[in-house]
Design brief:
Elements lengths: L1 E7 L6 E7 L2 E5 L5 E2 L9 H6 L6 E3 H6 L11 H5 L7 E2 L7
Parallel strand pairs: 4-5, 5-6
Antiparallel strand pairs: 1-2, 2-3
């Protein structure tokens, strides 16, 4: 995985770049849908592709709860979610505002 900085705003320090993963290239900044419990609610994988989704975030805890251990038999999280896009997972043991 690599990140290449393409530009940065001098006053806000906002950045634009390219994240390259084993599953593709992601232009940043990016809208990243979250697939809790193995699905993006109310959207099919085809609809996500048609919208130009470049990356899909999964939640490790939710995937453990449902579908559970069967997720471990998948080649990767993305194949189980029905996408060939990059699909990292995040696990937060505690969230606070």
């Amino acid at each position: 995985m690599s990140f290449r900085l393409l530009s940065q705003d001098v006053s806000t320090r906002a950045r634009r770049g390219v994240l390259t993963t084993a599953h593709g290239v992601v232009q940043t900044p990016v809208f990243m849908p979250v697939g809790t419990q193995g699905t993006v609610k109310a959207m099919t994988p085809r609809e996500l592709t048609e919208l130009g989704t470049q990356i899909l975030l999964g939640n490790t805890y939710h995937l453990f709860i449902r579908p559970g251990l069967e997720i471990r038999r998948a080649d990767c999280i993305g194949s189980w979610l029905g996408t060939d896009r990059s699909s990292p997972t995040a696990a937060a043991t505690r969230s606070s505002v």
